Amino acid sequence: MKGLILAGGFATRLGTIGEVLPKAMLMVEGDTAVGHLVSKLERLGIEPLITTNARFREFFRSYPNVLVEGATREEEKLGAVTAMANAIRTAGMEEDLLVVCADNYFSSDLRGFVSSYQGDPLVGIHYAGGDPGVRLQEMATVKFCGSDQYPPPSREFCIEEFKEKVDPPLSPYVSTCLYLFPPRIFPLLLEYTAEKKKDAPGFFIQHLLERGITVRGYLLEGEWYDLSYRNYLLMFRDSRLVRRDEDVIQFQRESGGKVMLLTFLRRGGMYHLSRGEGLLFFIEGEAEMKRGMRRMRVRGREVVEIAPGEEVSLLNTSCPYAVFFSLKTD
Fold first, then answer.
1. What pTM did the predictor assign?
2. Structural domain range at position 200
3. Last residue of a domain, one of 207, 230, 253
4. 224 lies in the same domain as 248
5. What is the total count of domains within the chain?
6. How many CA atoms lie within 13 A of 115 on its CB side?
7. In which element (H, E) is residue 34 found?
8. pLDDT band at 330 (very low <50, low <70, confident <90, very high)
9. Which of 61, 76, 219, 324 has the fewest CB atoms within 10 Å distance of its CB?
């Protein structure tokens, strides 16, 4: 079995942030999104291949197996299904293929999903009915025996219907952009892309069902979400880039007369707080903070108040990025 991590998008939903930082490099629970996925696959003995675009190729230089598509802007990018077909052709894949989008976070490992595979196309499913912030009509929803209840009779089931972004949704169960395809499906996938049909993976799943092919689902345990919907990222999508160097990527947004900064401090990078940054809220990762002669460790979900005139610096010694929000008070 091979693993394919799709990281070729340009994160247009994130505005300015997506122009300079791929979603795969967003931090969550101490690592990047792609870092979590690579670790999960490697723990299962699955060799991962990452496919990305030419603009963001440098972000992935530390990974051994990366396929770079030629796109440098949104209008040129390959759709997800076309990216799968390109990887299958380029790498000469002839094994079962696990596919996952790099902007997805799974709190659980993928062992149960992989263990449930029976040789038919398999889709990872999540129950989103208990989350009031999820707009089901904007997601791919599924219908199966028991999808009108929670929990369903079984974690494993045959999918009866699968629809991308329909209102009303088929059920509160949604696709997580996690798939497992047998090699016998590859010719159909290549044929599908040659006909230039809709390029989201969900439409290919619909196509398989319409062809009479059995598609199975597996209900994942734990938490799952698309990182691009995180509130702090959406809040800064209309921001402007104010700094980008070997240490820092920083965005600024003004609202109600206040100046807000969102900072990504790279591993090994140093950041000196500027005049007026009086409140720091750490979102992800950790850093060593120096306050005068004192040193302290700060981590995600911690708030630090800075006194006027206090000299403060931050050093990221561990995680790929330390992410924090700061508010200028003057």
1. 0.93
2. 2-230
3. 230
4. no
5. 2
6. 8
7. helix 33-43
8. low
9. 61
